[in-house]
């Protein structure tokens, strides 16, 4: 736990809290700006805004037995058991403008008992009237959202949490939020308001299921089946553009027929078909597909490429010399002189991979791109080195991860687990270049985010730290694994971290932080507060 958070580990007295809220109410008497203009409105919005400015009424209590264990006593990772709104209020004292990546998987509000808004409304109706300028009718409407799963209830729940999350993000930090169709539109408008529409980066479409199994029957009747979920991505500010992000790559089958030339030993240009025809092994391989030597072509190579390891291996062996021409003429700096017939390896500031340039007798610039730069280790369900394309905002085939998702991380959980590969790849894009990044997940669930951070750290001996937050809700009937030693979701989360850490250590023996410090966030009564003070 950081020194600054240790210093803030105290209770806020009742008198101090009242003074704070009296100061806060001054901003609420002039509501013209709030009532006018384009905005998202709902019952409870004013109350949600009030909550986002309130200070905490809880204390942080360390789990000394756990924290003093050898694997945990020097750990920088944190796990908080408690209401995430209260934890966020504590964190903003110590981690403001510090977190590099936030990922959350909040309740989707599907109407199937996955969410209900519960609030004890600690202020009396009269106090709320005084602070917010509410009428009796508005107070009555506010109370109607309690215990409900309406859109207004969900937005009231999410607003203060996201508002404080924005304060925690570093200037270059980003937040990912998983969601489905039930609240995606509302969440987008809410995030536009909190993070700023100008800081919206993208909405990722993640293919979480395919049209198979029980969905086939409905699909055959013309029903459009639901295969995707969304991940909204926002930045804290324009500063996020200054951080180098790591692209992700998807595998592409077949051979790219644009690569139809070959650079010989003396850098002369040769038709790649002639190279194929001159190789006895390749000619014999094509005969297996009933293709004679004279009929060998780049198009035929593409047709049978995925069916032949010999063809694939030959391309890999010659990948430095297989090239394609480019029609675009680059803007070549004046200090670079091209000579007729001599190739120059050219590096452009706007292009990661270099390409080759020459000039012919007529003075025309010829530009060649090697196939090597199209081959990379991919980020697919089964990664491989091969032909690839940079992934955009459509993240396909994550339904493959869902086959054994309930037991991923060696802890069974049947309540909306996300694949560790998904969270790891979000983190890879966001913080791969920052080995000391802070990662926060305040809807920890089964702690997939902690698992993903540990995996990422093993790849480059990183020191990235995670902060997990999970309330100690009882697991729903039917979701507790047989012979489990836990009954609450936070206990499941911590068990998953420990089992995943042990497995990663056995498999990699990487020198990373495998432990975590554990803290409880507890409410206390006024008498206890006064005694502590």
Keywords:
elongated; 6-stranded antiparallel sheet; alpha/beta; 34% helix; 19 helices; single chain; 533 residues; 10-stranded mixed sheet; 19 strands
Short description:
The protein is an alpha/beta fold. It contains 19 helices and 19 strands.
What does this 3D model show about the protein?
- This protein has 533 residues and is of the alpha/beta class.
- It has 19 helices and 19 strands.
- The strands form three sheets. A ten-stranded mixed beta sheet has the order 1-19-2-18-17-3-4-6-5-16, with helices on both faces. It has a six-stranded antiparallel beta sheet with strand order 9-8-10-13-12-11.
- Helix 16 crosses helix 17.
- The protein is elongated and about 90 Å long.
- The two termini are 22 Å apart.
Average residue pLDDT: 87
Report the helical percentage. 25-40%
How would the global form be characterised? Answer: elongated
Q: Strand arrangement, largest sheet?
A: 1-19-2-18-17-3-4-6-5-16
Low-confidence stretches: 6-34
- Specify the structural class: alpha/beta
CA radius of gyration is 29 Å
The helix count comes to 19
Biggest beta sheet attributes: 10 strands, mixed
Task: Give the beta-strand count.
Answer: 19
Strand portion, in percent? 15-25%
Distance between the termini: 22 Å
């Amino acid at each position: 736990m950081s020194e600054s958070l240790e210093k803030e580990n105290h209770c806020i007295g009742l008198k101090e809290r009242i003074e704070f809220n009296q100061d806060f109410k001054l901003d609420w008497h002039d509501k013209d700006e709030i009532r006018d203009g384009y905005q998202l409105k709902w019952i409870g919005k004013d109350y949600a805004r009030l909550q986002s400015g309130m200070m905490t009424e809880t204390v942080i209590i360390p789990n000394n037995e756990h924290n003093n264990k050898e694997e945990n006593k020097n750990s920088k990772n944190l796990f908080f058991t408690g209401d995430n709104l209260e934890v966020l209020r504590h964190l903003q004292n110590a981690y403001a403008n510090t977190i590099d990546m936030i990922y959350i998987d909040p309740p989707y509000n599907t109407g199937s008992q996955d969410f209900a808004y519960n609030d004890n409304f600690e202020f009396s109706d009269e106090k709320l009237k005084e602070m917010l300028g509410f009428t009796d009718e508005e107070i009555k409407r506010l109370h109607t959202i309690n215990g409900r799963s309406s859109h207004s209830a969900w937005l009231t729940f999410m607003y203060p949490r996201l508002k404080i999350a924005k304060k925690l993000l570093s200037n270059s930090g980003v937040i990912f939020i998983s969601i489905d169709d039930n609240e995606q539109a509302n969440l987008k408008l809410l995030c536009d308001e909190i993070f700023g529409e100008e800081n919206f980066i993208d909405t990722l479409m993640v293919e979480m299921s395919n049209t198979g199994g029980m969905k086939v029957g409905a699909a055959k009747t013309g029903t459009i089946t639901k295969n995707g979920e969304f991940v909204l991505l926002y930045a804290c500010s324009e500063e996020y553009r200054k951080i180098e992000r790591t692209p992700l790559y998807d595998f592409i089958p077949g051979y790219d027929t644009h690569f139809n030339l070959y650079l010989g030993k003396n850098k002369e240009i040769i038709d790649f078909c002639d190279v194929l025809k001159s190789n006895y092994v390749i000619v014999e391989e094509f005969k297996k597909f009933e293709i004679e030597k004279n009929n060998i072509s780049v198009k035929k190579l593409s047709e049978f490429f995925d069916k032949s390891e010999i063809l694939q291996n030959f391309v890999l062996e010659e990948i430095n010399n297989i090239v394609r021409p480019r029609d675009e003429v680059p803007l070549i700096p004046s200090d670079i002189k091209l000579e007729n017939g001599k190739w120059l390896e050219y590096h452009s500031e706007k292009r990661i991979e270099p390409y080759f340039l020459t000039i012919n007798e007529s003075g025309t610039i010829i530009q060649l791109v090697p196939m090597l730069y199209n081959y990379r280790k991919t980020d697919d369900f089964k990664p491989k080195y091969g032909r690839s394309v940079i992934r955009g905002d459509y993240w396909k085939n994550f339904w493959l991860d869902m086959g054994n998702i309930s037991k991923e991380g060696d802890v069974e959980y049947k309540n909306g687990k996300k694949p560790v590969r998904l969270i790891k790849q979000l983190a890879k894009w966001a913080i791969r270049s920052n080995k000391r990044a802070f990662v926060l997940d305040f809807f920890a669930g089964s702690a997939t985010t902690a698992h993903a951070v540990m995996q990422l750290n093993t790849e480059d001996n990183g020191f990235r730290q995670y902060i997990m937050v999970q309330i100690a809700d009882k697991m729903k009937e039917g979701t507790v694994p047989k012979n489990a030693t836990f009954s609450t979701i936070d206990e499941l989360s911590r068990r998953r971290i420990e089992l995943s850490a042990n497995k990663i250590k056995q498999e990699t023996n990487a020198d990373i932080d495998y432990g975590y410090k554990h803290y409880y966030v507890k409410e206390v009564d006024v008498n206890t507060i006064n005694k502590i003070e």
